[in-house]
Design a protein that fits this description.
- With 466 residues, the chain is of the alpha/beta class.
- It has a single domain, classed as Amidase signature (AS) domain (Amidase signature (AS) enzymes, Alpha-Beta Complex).
- 38% of the residues lie in helices and 12% in strands.
- The protein is built from 16 helices and eleven strands.
- An eleven-stranded mixed β-sheet has the order 1-3-2-4-6-5-10-11-9-7-8, sandwiched between helices.
- α10 links the parallel β7 and β8.
- The longest helix is centred in the C-terminal third of the chain and has 27 residues, at 301-327.
Length: 466
């Protein structure tokens, strides 16, 4: 198999070739390793490499829906025995997990082969990927632009066709924003849909979840089939899942009621090219037979913004205490970046009363949004209000604007996805966001698959790719 042939296939496509003995897992691993060595000096997407581990796994008798397929784990969470993880931080410089997280066990059972870890901002606290420990990750669509964050390295690697699938997680937009910036499909699953144990019961009070970035909808659906469901001891579970997400997307979604908005919450703006893309998507979806109406949910965005930031800060303060015990030492000042210290100090200053009041405020806003979804099946909006920013433009002061359309669904726990749809005049990708009811990934996957079939996106390759 040539690198060009490898780059044409999604994960299920490569797995099928292995099953039919047209290629071996070892061949695919060597193609992926060569792609990292050739492309990553410019991308800086894969700073942690485990090539010998990958080669050894490729020689095993692997089974599962993605048996033998190369993939990349994000440098944040998903503890995989023997695969270093630094959480994007100098504080974790020498940490190598001696155990598998519950989700890693399920990823192992898919038969995929990890080649390393992808670049992530420290503890996932930014929507650009520019950590001090690893340096700037760059978009294969334009090296002067960010691939987003916090799953920016994963997005850059998949968009460059180094691997068809990469692990990602999302606590405020960290799957969907990189997907939008890199012309990928990115699904943030329902709170509790995939496990985060055994070290934790939930991430950021349920705001953060794990899944993946993919080039196809079917890869995302098949992976969710393999990973969805609670693990023993989980504090709660998502609503019941179907027998197979992959089987579900083989049938159309039916006529949906779609509420669309292309204007930002009060105090923010939407770039004209982004707004035009969402308007075009609304017209396109109406043309597919759906009922599309321009309206947005009524909730207190400022209250939700405050509540979300306090949840993150409170969790960071707790995390650093537990990490100190786990690593055997408290962080020094230069172990963590200044913005991380700011979150920790904010969390340390919170009283239990203030933290609980912020959570109750979020619950009130979730009730209002829940009522909105009694009147529609899907909400359509921008993912990010601006095209992919240049490096250095994603300051801490700007993050609230950049996540204005994504973080509310982390707070409510609802599934949401970024679907490739438009392009700027400069050739940069623009995704659209689809949001569904709690537990209803099926409708989003069906609708995304319908868009993919009618308006394919995977054939358009980034300038820097295999």
């Amino acid at each position: 198999m040539t690198p060009e042939e490898y780059a044409k296939h999604d994960g299920l496509g490569l797995a099928d070739l292995i099953r039919r003995k047209q290629v071996t897992a070892s061949e695919l691993v060597e193609i992926a390793i060569a792609a990292i060595e050739r492309l990553d000096p410019k991308l800086n997407a894969v700073p942690i490499r485990a090539f010998e581990m990958a080669r050894a796994r490729a020689r095993e008798a692997l089974t599962g829906p993605f048996a033998g397929v190369p993939f990349l784990a994000k440098d944040l969470g998903l503890e995989w025995q023997g695969l270093p993880v630094r959480q994007g931080s100098r504080y974790f410089m020498d940490y190598v997990p001696a155990w598998d997280a519950d989700l890693a066990k399920r990823w192992r059972q898919t038969g995929m082969i990890p080649l390393g870890r992808t670049n992530s901002p420290e503890f996932g606290l930014n929507v650009a990927t520019e950590p001090k420990i690893h340096g700037i990750a760059r978009s294969p669509w334009n090296l002067d632009r960010t691939p987003g964050g916090s799953s920016g390295g994963s997005a850059a690697a998949v968009a460059a066709r180094i691997a068809p699938i990469a692990h990602a997680n999302d606590g405020g937009g960290s799957i969907r924003i990189p997907a939008s910036h890199c012309n990928l499909f990115g699904l943030k699953v329902t709170r509790g849909r995939t496990p985060v144990g055994p070290a934790l019961g939930e991430l950021w009070n349920g705001h953060a979840v794990n899944h993946a970035l993919t080039r196809s909808v079917r890869d995302s659906a098949a992976l969710l089939d393999a990973t969805a469901g609670p693990a023993p001891g989980d504090p709660y579970a998502a609503p019941e899942k179907p027998a197979s997400y992959l089987a579900e997307i083989s049938s159309p979604p039916g006529r949906l009621r779609i509420a669309a908005t292309w204007t930002a919450p009060k105090g923010y703006t939407v770039d004209a090219e982004v707004a035009a893309t969402v308007q075009e998507a609304a017209t396109f979806l109406a043309g597919l037979g759906h009922t599309v109406e321009e309206r947005r949910p009524a909730y207190d965005h400022a209250a939700m913004e405050l509540g979300h930031s306090l949840v993150v800060a409170g969790n960071m303060a707790a995390d650093i205490v537990e990490c100190s015990a786990f690593l055997g030492r408290a962080p020094k000042q230069d172990d963590l970046e200044p913005e991380t210290w700011d979150f920790i100090r904010l969390g340390q200053g919170l009283t239990a009363e203030a933290f609980e009041r912020s959570r109750r405020s979020l619950h009130r806003q979730s009730r209002l949004i829940g009522a909105f979804f009694e009147t529609c099946d899907v909400h359509l909006s921008p993912v990010v209000p601006v095209p992919p920013p240049k490096h250095g433009e994603t300051t801490i002061e700007r993050i609230a604007h950049l996540i204005a359309f994504t973080f509310p669904w982390n707070a409510t726990g609802q599934p949401a996805c970024s679907v490739p749809f438009g392009w700027t005049k400069d050739g940069l990708p623009i995704g659209i966001q689809l949001v569904g009811r709690l537990g209803d990934e099926v409708t989003l996957l069906k609708l995304a698959a319908e868009i993919e079939a009618a308006r394919p996106w995977a054939d358009r390759k980034s300038p820097l790719s295999l």
